[in-house]
Amino acid sequence: MNSTLPPLEEIAMIRFITGAGRRHPIAVLVVWLLITVAGFTLGNAVFARMTTTVGTVPGSEAQRGAEALGDAKLAPPVITAVVSGPPASTPAFRTAVEAAVTDLRVIPGVVAVSEPFGPTAPAAPDGRAVVLDVELEHQGDLLANRVADRIRDIGDTAGVTVAVSGGPLTDAEFNEQATSDTRRAEIISAPLLLILLLIVFGSLLAAGMPLLIAMVGVGGTFTALLGLSFVTDVSIYAIQVTTMLAIGLGVDYALLMVSRFREERATVEDFDEALRRATERAGRTIVFSGLTVAVSLASLLVFEDPFLRSIGLAGAAVVVIDMLAAITLLPALLRLFGRRIKPVRRVQGRAVPSPWWHAACSARPCWSRSPSWPGSWCWPCRPPAPAWTPATRSRCRPAARPVNWPTRWPSTSRTWVGRAP
């Protein structure tokens, strides 16, 4: 019985999916563009639909505690505001606060409003801050926002600052923080990724493709989370986890395919054949990796904790989106712009990596095949280290005696050797 995997040519699914991107690059590009635009526009509504509480495990101690609190019929939700500024005896300050209290008491759904002034009213020792407690009938967002907006209007008075929190506003603050954190992560990570990819590829076009796949993954993440929020509760913390996965896997998969394409271009003269080999072979690895990660994350669904289920479901959806983008959008981009991407250099008829730190070696390359020196480095041409100085650069030209040095290259038939004097 032959237990070996079928040859690549027999894997029709990979060939069909990657071939669609190669045959119809414009159509594939338009589809993913629409998905990304929808994700960054309509998908932003997901932040308002996410929740900080996704329930408790049935039969758990936490659920019994929540039921006990519900049976106790605790006080209704309360919004608390601290109004600070000039002394409370200032006429303008006192008038603004009292007008707000009057308006709050006539809002439908407001049960009671505390008295901000008086001998029993809570106030700062110096008299420059007062506290307002507003009791609500329910946890509705509309009511809470209306009350909070009216209290914040007190801040229009010169020198007065207002801080409002509590009740349903707490969830809104969590959502706002998650939104700002996600945007900050995207703003910071995008330039850093571009710099690192430029170092790896040495080409703006090749470096931009992994970054583009990462951005498509983030846009698809928002769309997937928005769709999931209509069928189940999605934790607000899922946005950070899924965004991290979208960026990381998008760059990882794109790096794999673009690197494979550059290698194939160095060994295959025909552009179409090099593109087919790269997309099908790298696509097979990407599909296997993506399905493995997606199934692993989906295993969180077996737990009864709603929070873990939320993370597992959202994470699996994001991995599938990144995987599909890598095996459809990347072949389309390589079809359109692949001729401008330089292949890796060739040494002795073989396509080999060209590390950027090799630029100092102006004579023949240090990379060659030498079974007698498995896993060895030419010491001056080893990867960058603090000892890499202009003095060691000059040693690369006349070359030095090779020194055994462990490498991270998996093949023992590829070695670093010194040049003959």
TrEMBL record:
SUPFAM superfamilies: Multidrug efflux transporter AcrB transmembrane domain
Signal sequence bounds: none
Top-level taxon of the source organism: Bacteria
UniProt subcellular location: Cell membrane
Recorded GO CC terms: plasma membrane
Transmembrane helix keyword on record: yes
Keyword Transmembrane among record annotations: yes
Keywords recorded for this protein, A-Z: Cell membrane, Membrane, Transmembrane, Transmembrane helix
Membrane topology summary: Multi-pass membrane protein
Coiled-coil intervals: none
Main location: membrane
Annotated transmembrane regions: 26-47, 192-216, 236-256, 285-303, 315-337
All residue ranges annotated as the SSD domain in the record: 204-336
Family: Belongs to the resistance-nodulation-cell division (RND) (TC 2.A.6) family. MmpL subfamily.
Protein's name according to its UniProt entry: SSD domain-containing protein
